[in-house]
Amino acid sequence: MTTAEPFTHALLTDGATVRIRPAVPGDAERVLAFYDAMSPENRRLRFFSSGRRAAELAAARVAEGPGDDHRALLAEAGDRVIGIADYSREPGTTAADISLAVADDQHHRGLGTLLLEHLVAAARGAGITVFTADALSANHAVLEVFADLGLRTRRHFDGPEVRCTIDLTPTDAYLSATDRRALVADVASLRPLLRPRSVVVVGAGRTPGSVGRAVLRGVRTGGFAGLLRAVNPHADIIEWVPSHPSVSSLPYVPDLAVLAVPAPAVPRVAGECGESGVRALLVLTAGLTREEAAELLAHCRRRGMRLVGPNCLGLLNTAPDVRLNATFAAGPPLPGTAGVAVQSGGVGIAVLDGLSRLGIGVSTFVSLGDKYDVSGNDLLRWWEADGRTDLAVLHLESFGNPRAFSRTARRVAGAMPVLTVDAGRMRRCVDRLSRCEEVDTVLVVLVPTAVAAALGDDLVGAVLHRPSPPARPVVAVLPSQSTRVELLPVREGGHVPAYGDAQEAARALAHAVTRARWLARPAGTVPEPAGVDSAAARGVVARHLRDHPEGGWLDPATAAELLGHYGFPLSPWAWAADEDGAVRAAERLAGADGAVVMKAHWPGLVHKSAVGAVVLDLRGAEDVRSGYRALARRFGDRMTGVVVQPLAGRGTELFAGVVQDAVFGPLVLFGLGGTATEVLADHAARLAPLTDVDVRELMRAPRCAPLVFGHRGGGPVDVPGLEQVLLRLSRMAADLPELAELDFNPVLARRESVVVVDARVRLRPALPVDPYLRRLR
């Protein structure tokens, strides 16, 4: 037999593997033997006759070999031909006549459909657009195959025969049909791997550092629900598990064999597993040569074994009726709902740890390693159908079939989130990064394994104790570390911070970045606002505290006098002690629309709106008198008078103020104002005295900052005016240690101006102290 043309392997619906290849002239005898082995009834359905002559002619045509107008595909299981599909182009057209035959004992395994899928792909490549096929109307099996293919099919009945025409135009229906078939086949093929009823660990050593022994221990202590054996010719029992000298000497044929033998022995053991009937291999061994790898994969393909690895961490399934932990990761995973597939074992351990910390846990975990066979596509299909997984996490270094992966991932993403990372090329990475001028710090996650723990490997030393110190700072993350953070000495001197959690390490780096930015910003200068009379302001404070030694909230007149010495843009106001005075004030202050606002006052009143002490939109003398009488009835003798102001127009309501902090001293506050200011608490603060840089940062710090600088197409408000308000508050706070609290709410900001609509000021006794004078406490 010669196979000059390329071949491929594919899965049947029961998970078995077949080889599909083009027929060549040397296949004539094998093809005829295939037809001879068919029952007379199946030969009649295939050739419309049970005689041998039709089979001989068909065998001769199939064995002609591929050409521009003819192609035949063979499906093989081992050395046996089990299916044939071929087409012959009708001269001068883009149509081709096809035929299909499947061995008697291979029906209902999806073989006919699989052959047609490959024949369709070959025909499209040759420019063929239509398949035609004649079948007996009694040949229900082949008619069903044509109908289920997913392509547009027409039938024309002529007596006992049916003429089928199949349009080869690609459609989404065809892709969906192939997706469904791939899902069924993949899931069936992965069952011996991910839901095995029996497991054998080949190469479980007697020494503590053996990878095989670590995996055997993990399977045993994890409570595997099936049968478990070990293979080691030098021991009868390992880890309390019965051991046998070879796979062929086992008392049963295991579904899954875990191989942890030296690289040169892997192909031989894989061949023995295949001859014994093992259905799946998990190869942990690394370092296979190209020849050893090719031989390993050939055994798997020939015997229909699915393969994970080589050079992998293992796999696990936390389902209660499986409980398989065939990994050498340190510590059992938390059962859960996340399906994980990784190529890097270290990343896999970190992901398992992270999912456990989050409380999500893992349904299935597969370390793909060198990914000779089982891929991310396979795992996506498994998770789609397993009924347990609701989150897919893939960490892949390559995509064997990117378009197929993209289609599968999009479909699966409709049922669950799919998180995919295309890894870098995951050993000199630390050195390169630490010498890269664009990198400031390197964060290294060091994950433990059971083998490293058994051998006492120093992961920190292996990465951080370099022959020469790194050019950039390095931060380590040790998920196994019991403390939150430690300082680890390194050989070249100094220390490296090691965190137990990657998030805490990232937060620490974020704080370092914030501090670096703060250090790099310009220092700024403290501006001197024009029109400030500090001496007169101190006189107002001294007079008030002489009359009120305990301090307290200033009355409107005193507050306006004090604020006037600092040049704040206060809204016009007038004090009225009776109804007539209120009317006169309203006549004087009413704006163009004639409206005023009246606010009741008495000593100690702070939150006027909260107690209903504000009456809005008063127009004319009668409104003003009615408003005054309403306030007088409501508050009685407590009310000492009212403040009358013009009704403020529209604008952005902001808050600005000062508070004396017991630790830090005077703080200037800025943020959202209005009645919701205390509920939303959208305020920021800076220490007085403010520099010009401080003022700009303070105005941009609250969440409401976009309202100041322009939001949804709206222009900014009077930013220079707001800056002046904050700078004057800063100067006032620095001048007056007796200033306990000051609130401007609201500060009404418009494009053309800023107005302080309402102000509250509280003083308290305090000794005037130069804060910069050198002295002991």
Structural class: alpha/beta
Mean pLDDT: 87
Q: Count the strands? A: 36
Report helical residue fraction: 25-40%
Q: How large, in whole angstroms, is the Cα Rg?
A: 42 Å
Strand content: 25-35%
| Adjacency order of strands in the biggest sheet | 1-2-3-4-5-6-8-7
The backbone outline, from C-alpha atoms, is elongated
**Which consecutive residue ranges, at least 5 long each, have pLDDT under 50?**
none
What's the multimeric state?
single chain
Question: What is the helix tally?
Answer: 24
End-to-end Cα distance: 101 Å
Main sheet makeup: 8 strands, mixed
Condensed summary:
This protein is 35% helix and 26% strand. It has 777 residues and is an alpha/beta fold.
Write up what this structure looks like.
With 777 residues, the protein is of the alpha/beta class. Helices cover 35% and strands 26% of the residues. The protein is built from 24 helices and 36 strands. The strands form six sheets. It has an eight-stranded mixed beta sheet with strand order 1-2-3-4-5-6-8-7, with helices on both faces. The longest helix is centred in the first third of the chain and has 23 residues, at 172-194. The model has no long low-confidence stretch (mean pLDDT 87).
Secondary structure layout plus pairing:
Blueprint: E1 8-11, E2 17-22, H1 28-36, H2 40-47, H3 52-62, E3 70-77, E4 80-89, E5 95-102, H4 111-125, E6 130-136, H5 140-148, E7 153-158, E8 161-167, H6 172-194, E9 198-202, H7 211-221, E10 227-231, E11 237-238, E12 241-244, E13 256-259, H8 266-276, E14 280-283, H9 290-303, E15 306-308, E16 314-317, E17 324-327, E18 335-342, H10 345-358, E19 362-367, H11 376-385, E20 391-396, H12 402-413, E21 418-422, H13 429-434, E22 442-445, H14 450-455, H15 459-464, E23 474-477, E24 485-489, E25 495-499, H16 502-520, H17 534-547, E26 552-553, H18 556-564, E27 574-576, H19 579-589, E28 595-601, E29 614-619, H20 620-635, E30 641-646, E31 652-661, E32 665-672, H21 677-680, E33 683-687, H22 692-700, H23 705-709, H24 719-735, E34 739-749, E35 754-756, E36 759-763
Parallel strand pairs: 5-6, 9-10, 9-13, 10-12, 13-14, 14-15, 18-19, 18-20, 20-21, 22-23, 23-25
Antiparallel strand pairs: 1-2, 2-3, 3-4, 4-5, 6-8, 7-8, 11-12, 16-17, 16-19, 24-25, 26-36, 27-30, 28-29, 28-30, 31-32, 31-34, 32-33, 34-35, 34-36
Helix pairs in contact: 1-3, 6-11, 8-9, 11-12, 17-18, 19-20
